[in-house]
Amino acid sequence: MYANTPASITPAFLVVGPVATEDNVDNLRGYAFDVAQQMGASATYATHTDHSVTDFAAVFVLGSVTELRDAPTLVLVGEALAAGVPVLEPQGPQAAGRCDDCGQRQTIRTVTDEYGDMTCATCRGEAVCAWCGDGADTSTEIVERGETWLPVHVGCVRGVLPVAA
């Protein structure tokens, strides 16, 4: 059982990839962590197809769609495309870099400002605490709740974690 569940705990991104082996699921889980950390929003990794893709802002694919051809979660990519939900593949290593302000490595999506400076979601002011909904202008950590990684203010972590029985 979890503590309170505010409306702000809604996954922003769905992450899909191969799930046939434990290593596949571990890789998918790690990729979802990177998405949550770098995008400054919650990310759910799909180990099954019981997700409504329209509940998410975008679907991130671990590997290419070709690598997913035998994965059961490939159907989620098709549903997202049919519904008009953006499907994003990993950027190439040549596009990766570090935030010019805080140094966070950017491997998921690199965003530059009008001057060409690379900035992360937190430094752009786009990251929000998944618990309280306030901007993540203070220290946050990425917390796992079920199959979802949540960026949460350090002071809000207790609300996200399971309550001891």
Give the strand line-up of the largest sheet.
Answer: 4-3-1-2-10-9
- Low-confidence stretches are 1-8
Total beta strands? 10
Question: Helices and strands: which structural class?
Answer: alpha/beta
Distance between the termini: 8 Å
**String of helices and strands:** EHEEHEEEEEHEEH
CA radius of gyration is: 16 Å
Share of helix, binned:
10-25%
3D shape: globular
What does the main sheet amount to? 6 strands, mixed
| Mean pLDDT across residues | 81
Beta-strand content bin: 15-25%
The number of helical runs is 4
Could you explain the architecture of this structure?
The chain is an alpha/beta fold and 165 residues long. The chain has a domain at 13-91 and 127-160. The protein contains four helices and ten strands; from the N terminus they run βαββαβββββαββα. The chain has helices at 22-39, 74-83, 121-124, 157-160, and strands at residues 13-16, 43-45, 58-61, 87-88, 97-98, 105-106, 111-112, 118-119, 140-145, 148-153. The strands form three sheets. It has a six-stranded mixed sheet. The chain has a two-stranded antiparallel sheet with strand order 5-6. It has a two-stranded antiparallel sheet with strand order 7-8. It is globular. It starts with 12 loop residues before the first strand and ends in a 5-residue tail after the last helix. 36% of the residues are buried. The model is unreliable at 1-8 (pLDDT under 50).
